[in-house]
Amino acid sequence: QVQLVESGGGLVQAGGSHRLSCAASGRTSGIFSMGWFRQAPGAVRDMITRIRWIDSHTWYTDAVKGRFTISRDNAKNTVYLQMNSLKPEDTAVYYCVAASSPGSYDAWGQGTQVTVSS
Fold first, then answer.
1. How many CB atoms lie within 10 A of CB 104?
2. Which of 5, 29, 40, 81 has its CA 20 to 30 A from that of 89?
């Protein structure tokens, strides 16, 4: 079992930057990849980025490409989401996830709210 704890949510002005963190604990040796989903009010929960553990290969959805960066600290088993040029439409609850195999998101964080004011 992997446990995930997110931190860093808050209120940000449009055009600003913000960073989220997600610390993994437990059976971290079984992690294939980690990533972030987000869910805006009244919308479905969508994946926005992920990073593969074995080679740090990353993927981004078009809506955040060029503005958000996912990275990892191996020693701390922590993943970061650096968000730049934030827009009001980035307002959502952000969830950290861990997968034990491709597409199998077994562990979820509790979610952290990011609100971007215009």
1. 11
2. 5
